Amino acid sequence: MDRLKGKTVLITGGTSGIGLATARLFLAEGARVAVTGRDPERLAAAQKELGEETLTIRSEAGSLAEIDSMMTRVKEHFGQLDVLFLNAASGTPAPVDLVTEDQFDEIVQTCFKGVFFSIQKALPVLSKNASIIITTSITNRTGSPNFSVYGASKAALRSLVQSLGLALIGRGIRVNAINPGPIDTEGFNRLPIPQEMLLAIKNDIEGRSPSKRLGTPEEVAKVALFLASDDSTFVVGEEIVVDGGISLVCLP
Ligand SMILES: NC(=O)c1ccc[n+]([C@@H]2O[C@H](COP(=O)([O-])OP(=O)(O)OC[C@H]3O[C@@H](n4cnc5c(N)ncnc54)[C@H](OP(=O)(O)O)[C@@H]3O)[C@@H](O)[C@H]2O)c1
Question: Helix, strand, or coil here: 33?
Fold first, then answer.
């Protein structure tokens, strides 16, 4: 129950899905938690559920100005940060013929650029022996035809985890990633596609997954707990796949 006792944690994209499940688990394990998101209703619901002690921050993951003010708020609230979980992103389908420059820039900014600069701007606030965790995606290895820019941005994160893992371990800071397969989150269920197409995708995944199901956000949160806690002090620059085995048999 106390695996994160006294630790301070910032979870970007902590108002829904994997991030919210992680916030719940980290609080139960004794952490002090801050979460970010954009949608005011989801931010208010998270505040209500996670309690007054939890800091909720409205912040756009791809905006350097908003990353700056997010870090200022975190410094004012916690003093220093022990765990930085960079999880905010959404997987919007973007077929290659239809991708506009604006869409391309938005996906790269949220999924890659924002993560790099969040780490850079967090450095003055991070404690000795801090843990940085980044959410990637199995599309960064398997490929996925309608998620090419998203998958490429997540692949860039895979490389970043290795380079920054090496760059920061000398300061005692560990950088690792969680690589989820299909997880039954609000975000997955909000994909901007017709409902029948969403159901067909889920059925297809369940049929081909060695585990015959999608994962739950709580199953990913438990891996985040491992990487956040002192149980993983010798894990550096790694990406842990949490996908029920589906990347072994590949995605559509
Ligand atoms: N679910 C899956 O199958 C799956 C698979 C592989 C990887 N992932 C990755 O897992 C992470 C979490 O996804 P999820 O499925 O848990 O999604 P989710 O339920 O939609 O939660 C996403 C969270 O990120 C926030 N967010 C999204 N875009 C943002 C932005 N541009 N700026 C700030 N906050 C933003 C959302 O806040 P708002 O709602 O307020 O925007 C929300 O709190 C993402 O990095 C995603 O790429 C998910």
Answer: strand
225 Ramachandran zone, left/alpha/beta (phi>0; psi -120 to 50): alpha
Provide the whole-model pTM.
Answer: 0.98
Locus of tokens 């919007």: 92
How far is residue 70's CA from residue 178's CA, in Å, rounded to a whole number? Answer: 23
What distance in angstroms lies between residue 178's CA and the mean position of ligand 1's atoms? 13
Write out the chain's pLDDT in tens, 252 residues.
799 999 999 999 999 999 999 999 999 999 999 999 999 999 999 999 999 999 999 999 999 999 999 999 999 999 999 999 999 999 878 789 999 999 999 999 999 999 999 999 999 999 999 999 999 999 999 989 999 999 999 999 999 999 999 999 999 999 999 999 999 999 999 998 999 999 999 999 999 999 999 999 999 999 999 999 999 999 999 999 999 999 999 755
- Asked if 119 contacts 132 with a C-beta cutoff of 8 angstroms, the reply is yes
Which atom of ligand 1 has the smallest separation from the CA of 14? 43
Mutate to test the pocket of ligand 1, among 10, 18, 142, 202 (most ligand atoms within 8 A of CB): 18
Q: Is 47 a catalytic residue?
A: no
CATH fold group of domain 8-244: Rossmann fold (3.40.50)
Domain boundaries of the chain, sorted by first residue: 8-244
Q: Which atom of ligand 1 is nearest to the CA of 154?
A: 47
Catalytic residue among 11, 150, 155, 164: 150
Count the Cβ atoms, other than its own, within 10 Å of residue 23.
27
> What separation in Å is there between the alpha carbon of 125 and the centre of ligand 1?
24
